[in-house]
Each structure stands twice: as structure tokens, then as C-alpha cells.
Amino acid sequence: MKLNDICKSLLACSVGVGALAAMPAHAEQTTITLARFFGACEADYGKVNDVTKAKGECGIITSLVNQFNATNKDGIVVKPEIAEWGPYYDQLTSRIVAHNVPTIAVMHQSVLGDFVSRKLVEPLDDGFKSVGINTADFTPQARHGVILGGKTYALPFDTWSWLWHLNTNILKKAGLTNADGSPILPKSPDELLAQAEKVKQATGKPYFAWTTANETAAPTRTFFTLVYQQNAQVFSADGRKISVHTAAATNALTLMNKLWTGGYIKKGLDYGATQQAFLNGDVAVDVVGNWTIDDFYTAAQKPDSALHDGYDVVPFANLYSKQAVFADGHSWVMIKGGAKSDKEKKAALTFMKFLWDHDFDWSRTGHLPANNTVVQSAQYKAMPFRNNIIDITRYGVSTPSNVPRQRAIEAIVGEEISSMMLSGKAIPAVEDAIETRVNTLLAGVK
Amino acid sequence: MSTQHIAGKRLGDRLILLAVIVLALIWVAPLIWVFGLSFKPNAELMRHTNVLFSPPFTLKNYTDILGNSSVFRWILNSAIVSLGQTFLTLVLCSLAGYGFARTEFPGKKVLYIAVLAGLAVPEQAVVIPLHHIFADLDLHNTYSALILPRLAAPFGVFLMTQYFKAVPKDIEEAALMDNTPRWKIFWRVVLPLSVPAQATLGIFTFLNAWNDYLWPLISASKPEMYTLTLGLATTQGNFAQSEGIGFLMAQAVFAGLPIFVIYLFFQKYIVSAVAGTTVR
């Protein structure tokens, strides 16, 4: 190489280095990690930067992250770390132990209390103020879910609840619709039993599909809803004891047992079979959460569907004096040690603000918004059935946040109720077992 | 032997064959079902899962898997972890087995019993201590963390010990009389004789490593370190058992393919291993 060429090369390098050095500071990347479930759908949405083109939980959250990465001016890169839903919280705990903490993590509000009580979650009040998230905009249910002991520990993303998905074609055959086609809903346990009998007589079909095989969450959520509707609570004020030897709990269990023994609940259904039974027109009512609205609505558009021109959805019908229904929600937290610097913390909060501003997009999944502004927006109300269920953001009842190990409790209560339905365990024995098992669990929590 | 006796024996054989065929069909039916459903659209399976042979069919479940840019990384991780575990297990178990079978040293019996006692310890019982150890060593999300814990293989040591015990001592003694070093005897004489046992142990180790889910779930939290089983599981939506049945089935087929290929090539060894013998 000639001297001249060497000089040219050195000059070119110098220009390159100089150009890099002259780049504005904000072009430096700040990478933050986002631990979440909701699945992966890179094949469909890996390159979608416009969230309005996405559908479903996975599609919308994937597109939201893509859109943020493509549009934010601060050089922030959000790197999703997707985990399987089932063992998600165990994996998150193991990550904390291993000091491999994600910057942001999705967390159910029913689980948040456990992490907060172990002092693992950052309070976010000041951070939210710094990026313009106003906690006063949180819906009542969301506030209850993420504000613990006066401090805000998470950004609420949605509320999900326990709904009745209705096949109004079947209800109509049983004479349980009004002249305008709207469903006639029961207002008491006796009315419910009478309606269920009417459906059985008129169509030969059971009134309900709800999951009774391989799942414990469904019976627990129904049980809690029925208790809350009697203006009652099963947990003590300090959240450390459960009492189900009460009139409200016994009423709830008795009703569930009558529905089961009366043949008003289709038997032997796991989660998938429950949805199949509803989609195929085998039952009048499917008791499940918000997340199926989209699928059922889509199915109802097809002429060959059993739900064609006959799908509706309402909150779990009010059978007692108080308007109430079990509710929970997804939220975003910053676990201590996740943000390694102020810069990362600022980047995480900026991304959270982006998510908050796109709460409407997330509500297209069927989940209810956590943002009051979205709740009141015409855009939200224009979506199918949202007007029917929007009030859940006001009266939805979460398990008190000071009750630890809510997932384990849900499993125990569900197992015992399943024993009542599947093997005829007597109600007093069910109540004894729930109290013994749950209180033993709670006594062991430090 | 009378004609009647021969005819009776033939009938008996045929009945046994028929029973075997029926049992095989019962066993294979769910696999065919899984394979068939993997080519069905998820929306249709949400309504029915008894539509195996009627159209529509789709490849979307497979393109969704292959469309994930991480899937080949996960296959590579699984291959590295499985092959690494297999190789190191064979080395360690062969050496340990030879030591227990052919050498004398103080405390040999106690040590051997201690190794065998490991067979009675379920893996779940040691998961938390293992996690803490690897966390303290800052080794999570590394190949070392995915491979090392599975190298404690009491079954492998037992298998190799028993196998080496069955090798005639005369072969070694002849070599010892020639003053051949023991490691050379092991390497040149005994080890080649143990290939059938090595194959059996190697296949079992590889299959277990490939299918392992629990330990990778706990140790690997960064997507780039997921193994295939773990990575595929993370792609499932929260309600895949209803909304993504075809996708789940395609995942099962996809993850099982390498195992299927291995079975095709090594079925002689696998069958003999399951039957409790090693092929010589």
C-alpha cells in the first residue's frame, strides 16, 4: 500500500470516528427488558409497527412494542422476554433470586400484593408524575388493584372479570328474551333455577357451560362473585384468615350445588370443551372472562354458527342485593434491581406512559380499560358489547390486596368446590376443608 | 407334536399378534390425532377437534413456528445442551463405572451405595438448592448451567459398572502382564467393548436432555438461551388450549421430530435398552 493510500484510509477513518462522535446524545440506545406472557406471534406481527392493524392479546402487545421501538425519539429499545403463562410467576421469582431482573414485568393485580409485601416492587408515584401518568385517571377497580398502602406499585393495563356469554337463540326458544331480542336475566337464585329449568324443558340443553375439569379458577371466581353479591367477604380485615362457615358462603355453595345436581351445568368440560360447547350451541350461557368476546363475536358473524345473530355478553348476573362481580387485572411493574440506572428507569417509565396512552388499543382484546378517559370515550363504547360490561370497571371486586398467595387460595377453593360437584362432598365438609387448608396456608406465610 | 397342538399354537400366536396390533393402534392413535390436528386451522378446532380428515387444512401452524426468528437458535441450544450432556455423561459414567467395577480403593462400597442412593432423589427435591448454587456462581443463562446439573447420573454409573463387571477379566489381565498402563487398558481395550452400553446410555441421556423442560425453565430466562421445549412453550398464548389447539399440536410434532429421527436410526439400541439388555 502506498503512503498516499494509507493517508487516505486514515483520513476516512478519522471522518468516520468524528461523525460517530458528533452524533447527538439521544441516539445512544437504552435497552430495557420487558418480561411478559400473552404468547409470541412473530410470524404474524413481528414486523407490524402499527397497533391498529393488530388483533388479540399477543398481536396487540407485540405491535405496541414494535411501534414504540420504531417511533420513540429517545433511543429506547424494548426487548421482550416472553415466558410461558403457566409458570410465569415462578420463573419471575427465580429470576429475582438469580439477580436477573427484567426492567418491566407484567403482573396480575391479584399477585402484586405478594411481591409488594416482600418489598420487591418499586413504588411508582414519583415516576408516574415525571412522565405525566395521572393516577387519578385509574378506574376504581384498577386503583384498588395497584395502589397498596397509599403507594402506587404498578401501571394498571386492564380489568378482566367474570362474564355471562349468552346464546340468545337458545334463550329465545325458552322464552327468556324481551321483544327487542335482549336477554331476560335472572335477579335471584330462585329465578336462575327457574330459568335454567325452562331452558332444559324447552331445548333439552343445560343452561350453563363452565369449566369443571382440569381447572380450579372457574368455580372459585363464581363462588367469590356470589359471595360479593351478598355484600359479604370471606377474608378477615388483615387478609390472614378465611371464613366460609357463613350464610353468604353457604348460600353460594348451595346454589352452585343445586345447579350442578339439577343438571343445569354441562358436565365434564375442561376449558377448551367449555368454549366448544358454547360455540356449538350446546348451552345457553358460558361463564368465562372477557378474553373470549372477540372469538365469540367473530364466530357469531358466520351464518353457519350456532351463535349467528344470537350472541350477547353481560357481567355475571346479579342474583343478590349488591351489584358485584369478581375482577382482576393485568398491570406493569418495575421490580427492584431491574432498572440498572436512572436512565433505564426513565426509559422504562417512558415506555409505561406509551402503554398507558394506548390503553384503548389493548381494550380491543376484550379486556376492560384501566384508563378512565378510555372508559368514557365514544371510541371505546362504539366497540361491540362494551357498553354492557363497562360498569365492571366501577363495581368489580378484587380479592383484598392484603391477602397473600391468592393463586394458591384460588386453587384450594376451586378444588373443594369441584369435590362438591364431582364427588358429592357435603357443603359443611367443603367449608371445613376450605377453612382448614387455606388458613394453614395463610398461617405459614411470613 | 400333534397337528391339533400345532394348530392351537398357531391360533394362540395369531391372537397374540392381534392383541399386539390392537394395543399398537391404541398407542399410536393419539399421535396420529396430534399430527392431523397440527394441519387444521385454530379457529375450526376451537369449535371441533373431531375433524381430523375433513378439509380445510393449513400449514400456518408450522409457518407460525418457523416464522419465529428465535426457533433455530432454540434448536441450536437444544442440540448443544443435549450433545454436551450426552458426551460428558458418557465420559463420567464410563470412568466411574470402570472404577467401581475394576479397581479397589478405600470406601468403594460406601461411595457406590451413595451414588446409587441418588436414584431415589427426585429432581424436584434438588431444584431450589441447584438454582441457588448457580445463581451464586452467576451461571444462569449459560450452557454450563443447562448442562452441568444433569451430569450427576447415578443410573449411568450403575449401568456402566454392571457392564464393565460383565467384561471378562482375562482380557485386562493379559494387558496388565504386558505392563500396559491402566488408563491405556481402559481406553484401548475395555472402552471399545462397552460401545453397546454407551449407545444405550447415550440415547437415553440425549432423549432426556432434549425433552428436559423443568431445569431450563428455571435456569434460562433470556430468550436467547431457551431450549426448544422451553422456547416453544413461551410462544403459546394464555388460552392456547382453546384458541390455539392446532398450533399446540404443531409444536408437539415439531419438538418431537428430532427424537423421531433418532429413534429411527437407533431403535435397535433403544428397544434392547428398554428390554433391560444391551446389544452386543
UniProtKB/TrEMBL annotation, chain A:
Give the matching PANTHER family: ARABINOSE-BINDING PROTEIN-RELATED, DIACETYLCHITOBIOSE BINDING PROTEIN DASA
Record-stated family = Belongs to the bacterial solute-binding protein 1 family.
Provide the leader sequence positions. Answer: 1-27
- Top-rank taxon, per record: Bacteria
Give the keywords, sorted: Signal
Coiled-coil intervals in this record?
none
Query: What is this protein's record name?
Result: Sugar ABC transporter substrate-binding protein
Q: Does the keyword Cytoplasm apply?
A: no
Which organism does this record belong to? Answer: Silvimonas amylolytica
Q: Which Pfam families match?
A: SBP_bac_1 (PF01547)
Q: Where in the cell is it found?
A: Periplasm
The answer to keyword Acyltransferase applying to this record is no
From TrEMBL, chain B:
Pfam families to which the protein is assigned, alphabetical: BPD_transp_1
What are the subcellular locations of this protein? Answer: Cell membrane
The UniProt keyword set, sorted, is: Cell membrane, Membrane, Transmembrane, Transmembrane helix, Transport
Entry keyword annotation includes Repeat: no
Q: Where does the source fall among the domains of life? A: Bacteria
- Broad class of the protein's primary localization: membrane
Residue ranges annotated as coiled coil are none
> Where exactly are the transmembrane stretches of this chain?
15-36, 74-98, 143-164, 185-207, 245-266
Q: Which residues belong to any copy of the ABC transmembrane type-1 domain?
A: 75-266
User: Its topology with respect to the membrane?
Assistant: Multi-pass membrane protein
Q: Which family does it belong to?
A: Belongs to the binding-protein-dependent transport system permease family.
Q: What is this protein called?
A: ABC transporter permease
Query: What is the native source organism of this protein?
Result: Silvimonas amylolytica
Task: Give the organism's phylogenetic lineage.
Answer: Bacteria, Pseudomonadati, Pseudomonadota, Betaproteobacteria, Neisseriales
